[in-house]
Amino acid sequence: LGIEQLLREIGQIYEVLEETFPTKDHLFLSLPQIAAELMISGLPIELMDGDASYVPLKWVAAVFDKVSENLGDKRLFVLSILGLQSSGKSTLLNALFGLQFTVSAGRCTRGAYMQLLKVEETFTQELGFDFVLVVDTEGLRAPELSGKSQNRDNELATFVIGLGNLTLINIFGENPSEMQDILQIVVQAFLRMKQVKISPSCLFVHQNVGEVTAKDQTMEGRRRLEQRLDEMAATAAEQEQYSDVTRFSDVIKFDVNTHVYYFAHLWDGNPPMAPPNPRYSHNVQELKSGILLTAKQECRGSVMKISDVKLRVQDL
Length: 316
Description:
By secondary structure, the protein is of the alpha/beta class.
């Protein structure tokens, strides 16, 4: 039993009580304040209940309200992540920002969690935002949900991509057939966003690519990835009856040379004796610079205030 289960219960209790007692002097109205304080102190708060695919809108809205009451309506850069189950998403986020998302084998993250990170004051001017909101999601195509996961994966992906200013698409290895699934979901979600004039961007991360030095091979891989994305975009555009989309770069700004990162194995050998691979840390560092660079460019136009994020969650 983790604290997230308790928080989920509290959220549900809050929603029910708010329906029944609309007056403003009840004790339960202080519940969002507690969650907001936990969130500000750096605890991940559940944004989407993974077991029921349900977003407790009133609760999330109330928590966001309290957060902006406590901090002021600050600017947020939303970074979200998508990938197949057990492809190392939470591990990557933890390595990037020193977070504490739970990591384990199998399906450990369910639904979507958000965590607030304060940007140091010396950099807020330069970057153009005060906080990063990191959204960690459960793995797509979970074997536990075999058969009924397709629709729900599409919903999760649309939700997460629509929410994020920048989405990391996490792919394990470089096998294109495994990517097929993910890319289809991603392209569909980006097309939907295009329809409602939201323009997120994305970076691809290939984890566990053994020989990082073989530049020409990864060049070939990049070319194949781009080809795949273009095919997907064309198919998805056909399904959504879009005539002016033929390539992936018609859907969002995408450059195959700068928006794709290759990661070394995290472990060199076999634990318990293996040291973590230093290459992984270098890769993480590069990715972090890439994220901040994108954030800087993006932010001039599309960075949201806390209140905007709340509305965007409701819209999605």
